[in-house]
């Protein structure tokens, strides 16, 4: 399978590409790193990426920046980043990528748990992840030729908490998150939001 992996060098992206590289031809795409680069905030950059790559069997996006901060303190730019990167960046990957997706192929986007578990300081990112999930649910009804679309909605990742230097015991390991992307590609579901949650011990 030829898989286009956007955000391949991120914490989640590295785990996902490691998993898929065992069996598939994975094209690793980043913003500043990778075989190819793209800026998902720039429609022309997305179109140019697909023109270079051509047809693919799967598109997975593990990119998408969000901003944290209270409503009282979040500047316009924080909301704009969520809208133009996390939300419209991924939506535009679908809009421009669909014609390059082979019949029966799949798209997997990344949302997150912020809208399911409200916490102070996450209003902007919660709005973005809810938007991604809503888009996926409706897009699945419109895709034809056996094409599918899902989202993986991870809880906070263990390696991210480690990077922040805080207790990581309640995080989900990136390798465990990666398995949900595999399910999205392999299981045949569409319009599904895979909640990637740490297992309860
Ligand atoms: N980590 C978590 O705890 C967690 C939890 C829930 C949801 N998520 C979501 O999961 C996704 C991945 O998270 P992560 O922690 O793995 O992120 P990360 O480590 O910060 O990696 C982000 C990746 O996205 C790429 N990227 C950044 N800006 C881009 C742009 N404008 N255009 C194209 N690519 C861009 C980066 O490329 P370069 O490396 O080349 O710069 C990098 O490969 C994000 O959507 C995040 O919101 C993460």
Automatic annotation (TrEMBL):
Gene3D superfamilies: NAD(P)-binding Rossmann-like Domain
Keyword ATP-binding: no
An example molecular function term from Gene Ontology annotations: oxidoreductase activity
Source taxon at top rank: Bacteria
Alphabetic keyword roster: Oxidoreductase
CDD domains reported in the protein's UniProt record: Lin1944_like_SDR_c
InterPro entries xref list: NAD(P)-bd_dom_sf, SDR_DHRS6-like, SDR_fam
SUPFAM superfamilies attached to this UniProt entry: NAD(P)-binding Rossmann-fold domains (SSF51735)
Database matches in NCBIfam families: PRK07578.1 (NF005754)
Family: Belongs to the short-chain dehydrogenases/reductases (SDR) family.
Protein name: Short chain dehydrogenase
Species: Vibrio aquaticus
């Amino acid at each position: 399978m030829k898989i286009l992996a956007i955000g391949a060098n991120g914490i989640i992206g590295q785990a996902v590409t490691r998993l898929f590289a065992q069996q598939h031809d994975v094209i690793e795409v980043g913003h500043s790193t990778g075989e190819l680069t793209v800026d998902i905030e720039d429609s022309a950059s997305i179109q140019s990426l697909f023109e270079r790559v051509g047809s693919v069997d799967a598109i997975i996006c593990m990119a998408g920046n969000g901003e944290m901060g209270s409503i009282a303190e979040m500047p316009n730019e924080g909301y704009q980043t969520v809208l133009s990167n996390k939300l419209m960046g991924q939506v535009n990957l679908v809009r421009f990528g669909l014609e390059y997706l082979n019949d029966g192929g799949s798209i997997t986007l990344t949302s997150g748990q912020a809208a399911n578990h409200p916490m102070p300081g996450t209003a902007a990112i919660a709005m973005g992840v809810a938007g991604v999930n809503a888009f996926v649910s409706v897009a699945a009804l419109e895709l034809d030729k056996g094409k599918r679309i899902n989202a993986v909605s991870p809880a906070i990742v263990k390696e991210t908490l480690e990077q922040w230097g805080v207790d990581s015991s309640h995080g989900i390991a990136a390798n465990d998150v990666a398995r949900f992307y595999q399910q999205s590609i392999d299981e045949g579901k569409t319009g599904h939001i895979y909640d990637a949650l740490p297992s309860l011990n």
